[in-house]
Amino acid sequence: xxxxxxxxxxxIRSAFNSPVAYILxxxxxxxxxxxxxxxxxxFVRGKAELSAWFALMPLVFCFLIPSVTxxxxxxxxxxxxxxxxxxxxxxxxxLVIGKFLASLVVLGLALLLSLGVPLSISLVxxxxxxxxxxxxxxxxxxxxASIAIGEWVSSLAKNQVSAFVGATLLLLxxxxxxxxxxxxxxxxLVASLLNWLSLAFHNQGFARGVLDTRDLAFYLVLTTFFxxxxxxxxxxxxxx
Length: 240
Fold this sequence. Notes:
The chain has 240 residues and is mainly alpha-helical.
């Protein structure tokens, strides 16, 4: 764990030493705020609840997360530091977890700053604190799983562009797969499977303020699975 924290600190410093992290966080805050207050005309509706705002998050992060994770491994190869990184006295798991934690800190900061939205709403209407905690918990878990997917794609990609495009397409698939089932009018086991695979479907309960252990387990299993795949791929490249 100590090695992972060392890698995470290195990655966090690298992220905030360039304007990219600030631009991405700023774009996230501006877009989601404009969508809620202008496009959705929140104050005209006269209802102090944010379920629709949180339901939008999976789609927004489909584009935001690849912008962060594309640097993780593809950038190391572009700069020629990939082999040097693998010679450090850290295991592949420590390297992967360290990069994962760094991305989680950057995107977690974006979520933390977005608290300005519910705080501003609480000045004119009463929000249910329990529901809000559930919504942020679900979003953070969804972000963690999506980061793990983005890290895996980055470990396979040859450059940042392919890492971004690949992660975006894969995340869109995970988010919209339940909609495919609805479009095809899938029923029974097929519909259940497509729903179970959907990041957006598992986010719906959290967005309504419902903490379901099945959704929690799905996000944790998905995160662990893709981090394992990333570590396996890094190990394979190390010895190839």
